[in-house]
């Protein structure tokens, strides 16, 4: 499968889930006798907890000898329900407390090429045009509170550019990064785009904390690859404060790690610094 195929598959899964939730009929209330038997059977069957897909060793980054960052994964905000088991009284079960993923060395910046400029990249004017067009869509959805719509479409390549995206014309190397950063309009749009997409996930990028009163449509979409691209892009652009804020969000939604894209392990995003 290509990266595009996998992204289309992820979008299809998200839309299918929404459709099922909207159309699924409300089940009839069980009779007292059936309720009792149902309770008995459910107590004997453990809840299903999905596990991350197996990752081939060939695509897993090498383990780093360094220890995890001093800041432990935050537990004061909403997290992935499958990653933070609780006992029946609502407190954390110490026996099942999630463990931190093994530290992994991130791939070096601009590892894809020894060149300092991507000669196939589109012009700065083109980068600005596609960025501004997409940012206007973000704003158009944010204004009436259609936060879930912000995640529609494929725009990561030019909104959060990295060095190894599958759209070569938007990939950036070190000189490309410096050129884009030197353009105040592009950089301002970049910051605003990061802020709006993070907000759509229910995260305040500037305060590095969850939004207390989430609006309808806000919330984590389990779209690991978009979060991974945003964090790596911020790392390449030396936006360290914003990167650390999104890393905190990543720890929040998956305290045990397990970020992946198809068969590719994405946990390197937790260890960039």
Supply the key terms.
single chain, 273 residues, mainly alpha, two-stranded antiparallel ribbon, two-stranded antiparallel sheet
Give a summary of the structure in a few sentences.
The protein has about 270 residues and is mainly alpha-helical.
Number of helices: 8
| Quaternary organisation | single chain
Q: Mean pLDDT, as a whole number?
A: 76
List low-confidence stretches: 1-6, 18-97
The portion of residues forming beta strands comes to under 5%
The count of strands amounts to 4
Strand order within the widest beta sheet:
1-2
What is the CA-based Rg, rounded?
21 Å
Question: Which helices and strands, and how do they pair?
Answer:
Blueprint (H helix, E strand, L loop, with lengths): L2 H21 L8 H13 L79 H19 L13 H4 L14 H8 L2 H17 L2 E2 L4 E2 L13 H13 L3 H14 L6 E2 L2 E2 L8
Antiparallel strand pairs: 1-2, 3-4
Helix pairs in contact: 3-6, 7-8
């Amino acid at each position: 499968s290509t990266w595009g195929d996998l992204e289309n598959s992820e979008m299809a899964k998200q839309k299918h889930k929404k459709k099922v939730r909207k159309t699924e009929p409300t089940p009839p209330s069980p009779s007292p006798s059936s309720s009792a038997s149902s309770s008995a059977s459910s107590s004997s069957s453990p809840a299903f907890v999905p596990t991350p897909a197996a990752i081939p060793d060939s695509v897993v980054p090498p383990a780093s000898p360094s220890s995890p960052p001093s800041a432990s994964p935050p537990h004061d905000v909403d997290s992935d329900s499958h990653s933070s088991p609780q006992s029946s009284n609502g407190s954390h079960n110490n026996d099942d407390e999630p463990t931190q993923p093994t530290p992994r060395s991130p791939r070096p910046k601009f590892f894809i090429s020894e060149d300092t400029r991507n000669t196939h990249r589109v012009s700065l004017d083109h980068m600005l045009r596609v960025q501004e067009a997409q940012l206007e869509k973000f704003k158009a959805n944010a204004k009436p509170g259609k936060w879930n719509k912000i995640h529609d479409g494929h725009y990561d390549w030019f909104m959060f550019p990295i060095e190894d995206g599958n759209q070569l014309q938007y990939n950036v190397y070190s000189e490309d990064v410096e050129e884009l950063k030197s353009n105040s309009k592009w950089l301002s749009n970049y910051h605003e785009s990061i802020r709006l997409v993070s907000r759509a996930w229910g995260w305040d990028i500037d305060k590095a904390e969850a939004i207390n009163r989430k609006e309808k449509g806000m919330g984590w979409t389990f779209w690991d690859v978009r979060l991974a691209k945003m964090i790596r892009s911020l790392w390449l652009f030396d936006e360290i404060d914003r990167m650390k804020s999104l890393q905190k969000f990543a720890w929040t939604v998956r305290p045990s790690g397990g970020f992946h894209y198809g068969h590719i392990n994405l946990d390197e995003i937790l260890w960039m610094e």
